[in-house]
Amino acid sequence: MFADLRLRLRALFQRAQMEQELENELRFHLDRETEKHVRAGMSLADARRRARLEFGGVERIKDDVRDARGVGALDRVTQDLRYAARMLRARPGFTAAIVLTLGLGIGANAAMFGIIDRLLFRAPKYLIAPERVHRVFVSYIWDAQPRTERSIEYVRYTNLSAWTNAFDVTAVAAYRNLAVGTGDAAREMPVAVTSASFFDLFSAHPVIGRWFSREEDKPPMGTTVAVISYPYWQLTYAGSPNVLGRTLQIDRRIYTIVGVAPPGFVGITDQSSPAAFIPASAFAGSRNANYDHEYGWSWLDMFARRKETVPVTAANAELSTAYARTWDSEREASGSSGVTSRDAQARAFAAPVQLSRGPDAGPESKVASWVMAVAAIVLLIACANVANLLLARAVARRREIALRLALGVTRWRLIQQLLTETMLLAALGAIAGVAFAQWGGAALRTLILRDAEVSPVVQDPRTLLFVAGAALIVAVLTGLAPALQAAQADVAGTLKAGAREGTYHRSRLRTALLLFQGAFSLVLLVGAGLFMRSLANVRAERLGYDVDAVVYAEGVDRGVNLTDAAARALIQRLQDAARSTPGVTSASLTISVPFWSSEGRGAPKVPGRDSLSRLGRFMLQAGSPSYFETLGTRILRGRSFTESDNERAPPVALVSETMARVVWPGQDALGKVMRIGTDTMPYMTVIGVVEDIRSRDIRGDREFTYYMPIAQYNARYGDARPAFFIRTSGNAADFAPVLQRRMQREMPGASYIRAMPLRSLVAPQEQSWQFGATMFVAFGGLALVLAAIGLYSVVTYAVAQRVHELGVRIALGADVGDVVRLVLRQGVLFALGGIAIGSAIAIVAARAVQPLLYRESAYDIVVYGAVAALLLTVAVIATLRPALWATRVNPTEALRSD
Q: Which has fewest Cβ within 10 Å: 270, 345, 718, 877?
């Protein structure tokens, strides 16, 4: 076996030497045969002739030997590639059209694969045994509503770690935007707050220095040490090895740099590379002195790696038992007689580390999966287009193929050669596809993976492997049918027909491919129309406040300690600074922000009503007297807060419209009373009803919201942080940096102002529809162009093949209109067939698409009609040029060529 392997390797890599040895060996045997015949009395010439006849064909023997060595197939492939390259160079227009078509189809799929792979399948870099590493989720019933969350408290993490044996590593991490640096160099950047055990999940080692240790991550205050990321090291310290031991302010504390993470190490996150990794105890100790023994502050994601011998079901059972214990421990620690773990159905479970595969997956991942299917359809349309072109070309090459078959080429050998041509085209299309994906993939990643670090396509082996596989599939899909059709040629009939073989040959396969292109183009364009209308509906939806004119600004103290009086004075100065900024019409304090932060005090208590918590989620908001004016929330009945509604005045409140209707059905809410908290708290009188707002889920039900004057809120719960809504006279995005600079002048020490347009907080809620609309329009438009090109090619080919027939028609008196209608009729029939089939497919798929739409029916007749009209128009345009060309056929020349 080894001797045979060595022989084959020599034949492959020492080709010239092996060929010379074969030549010498054959010459030796011929010479011996010749000598034998000369000794028998033959002349030298006759002896040589007799020896060759007895020996057989030398070239045939060489081919047999090459086949035995395994290089014969390589010779045939090389020969086929050279022939294919010559054929493609001879028809540059044809080649360019196919390469461009395949490049667009493969490129779209490569770009989408990179995103889907990153969202659903690819494990974080350096992660050890990713199939055994999980993100821990908890679920329970609260306020009669089932909830599933991934954020837990630090003390609950330590409980779950101590009370389970199914895992060899447990860890926590939280990625937060924190101020990094000092002075003018300070910037808000993502920072990874992790336990020391977090690094045990990975095989990564710091470039220089070390990770922080468990001793440095010991509660309550930890040690202020940090490991900076590789990009931050390069950008801020120019990769200096002297960075170890330097200090860096992160959030409220000064940290000492003890290491630099390796390139590409981000932990487990969909965000960009964090600036630094800091101990969870060091961060939490500066925010909450009781974080390590009190429940209530849920801010950490927990990760766990199962032991090899423990199945997921057993791990989940342990987690649920431990979580139920923590639930009851929380009740005992708080002295509460609240819901038990059994009544709350409290459980915990291990899910994939990728958020898009877990129960917390957003609509973006579902839309991305649909768009991946859309990209695959675009590739199939491209394949159908190319297959149609190759079928037409195979018909044009009938005489050449028949002649080669007549000269002795086997049909299997012919199929191999034709498939080699297709393979070469697919390879060129794959190269073009990588270029398109490299260029267009950045735009796709911006839509879905805005903050994540994604490798360029040319540096991603997984995506390149996908492209190679796609190219192979494309080659088979596009080349097999034309090759088989060509190999079935009637040799005698084709050669006998000669130049007369120019009549039009109808092909059911070409017709089916063309109908396929039209049908799925309609499906994609219907999807584009539905998502565009959904996006328009989302943006037209009244959220209960004005989005584009409002800036949200908040002060971040960064460890600056102020007395209560100084803090109140700072808030007043900040509010005055905002109001005095040119272009600002009003400003108001707030305690929560839609889609950013919320204040949940639970359902209020109303005389004569049982617990309201079963009705849904109640949210508390508080603001200055100008709150509703600033935010643009309309007061439907009653009045707003006034300056007289201070801490000494009777408690008052406003409620949302839905809350007023549900809590006091059939009654006027004005004048009704309610209270928050225990029975000792005073009642608040409802003085106004305002429109509903959306602050948590743009698709969810209307929320129950009630409002307090900020002065009465501060008197009851302590002074609120400096957070403001600021109404501007123009686009809030233009005012945000101006307000940030103006208000920053009032901030003491290292504290700073964070200012952002309210639109930037709402925009992520619209992302799934924006992405769906963008990608369906892009891919639907691409599919339409490909279908138009395919229709144009087929009709043009048909006209070229029907020159003789058209010449006869014109000679017999057909006018220009008759010829144009004849050709246009063919294109219109193809379009109508595609519309009928595509509409049926779209209607079948509508039920699956419906949950992704917003206030839009998946059966919208307007969308279907508009898309059908568009497809029909494009078909007429694509067919018109061949139709006009048909009218210029010279009947004399057409008949003479016969």
A: 718
783 shares its domain with 744: no
Cα 574 from Cα 481, distance rounded (Å): 74
Q: How far apart are CA 788 and CA 877, in angstroms?
A: 9
Report residue 425: phi and psi, to 5°: -65, -40
Query: Exposure of 42 by Cβ count < 10 A (0-12 exposed, 13-18 middle, 19+ buried)?
Result: middle
Instruction: Write down which residue in 311, 332, 353 finishes a domain.
Output: 353
Using CA atoms, how far residue 772 sits from 44, 360, 782, in Å, is 84, 20, 15
Residue 92, in any domain of the structure:
no
CA gap 894, 800 in Å, rounded: 11
Distance CA 767, CA 445 (A): 12
- Pull the structure tokens for residue 804: 């003789």
For residue 268, give the DSSP letter: S
- Cβ atoms 78, 16 nearer than 8 A: no
Both 762 and 780 in one domain: the answer is no
* Number of structural domains in the chain: 4
Q: Is residue 100 part of a domain?
A: no
* Bridging pattern class, strands 187-194 and 151-152: unpaired
The one-character DSSP state at 182 is S
pLDDT of 309 reads: 94
DSSP-assigned states of every residue in 95-159: HHHHHHHHHHHHHHHHHHHHHHIIIIIPPPTTBSSGGGEEEEEEEEEETTEEEEE-EE-HHHHHH
Instruction: Return d(Cα 195, Cα 282) in angstroms, integer.
Output: 10
Residues 6 or more apart from 98 whose CB is under 8 A from it?
386, 389, 390, 425, 429
> Are β-strands 652-656 and 704-709 bridged in parallel, bridged antiparallel, or unpaired?
antiparallel
Which string of b and e fits 245-270 if b means at least 16 CB within 10 Å? eeebbbbbbebebbbbbbeebbbbbb
Residues 398 and 302 in one domain: no
Residue 403 in domain:
yes
Which has the minimum average pLDDT: 40-54, 180-194, 356-370, 756-770? Answer: 356-370
The CA distance from 463 to 112, in Å, is 10
For residue 419, CA distances in Å to 84, 426, 428 come to 9, 10, 14
pLDDT tens digit sequence for 476-510:
888 877 777 666 656 565 556 554 444 445 567 77
In a domain, 124, yes or no: no
Pairing of strands 347-352, 167-180: unpaired
Q: Using the 8-state DSSP alphabet, how is residue 397 labeled?
A: T
pTM reported for the whole predicted model:
0.76
Query: What is the domain extent for residue 29?
Result: 2-70
What gap in Å lies between CA 180 and CA 480, rounded to an integer? 60
CA nearest 379: which of 93, 782, 96?
A: 782
Half-sphere exposure of 176 (CA within 13 A, CB side): 18
Beta bridge partners of 605: 675
* Nearest Cα to Cα of residue 806 among 825, 823, 787: 823
pLDDT the model gives residue 502: 45
Task: Report the C-alpha dihedral over residues 195, 196, 202, 207, rounded to 10 degrees.
Answer: 120
What is the DSSP secondary-structure string of 778-812? HHHHHHHHHHHHHHHHHHHHHHHHTHHHHHHHHHT
DSSP string, 584-627: EEEEEEBS-BTTTB-B-----B-TT---SGGG--EEEEEE-TTH
pLDDT in tens, 326-364: 988 888 776 655 677 777 888 999 999 988 888 877 676
Mean pLDDT of 162-166: 95
The gap from C-alpha 700 to its chain's centroid, in whole angstroms, comes to 23
Helices and strands, number each (H, E), in the chain: 27, 22
d(CA 742, CA 146): 45
The dihedrals phi and psi of 455, each to the nearest 5 degrees, come to -70, 145
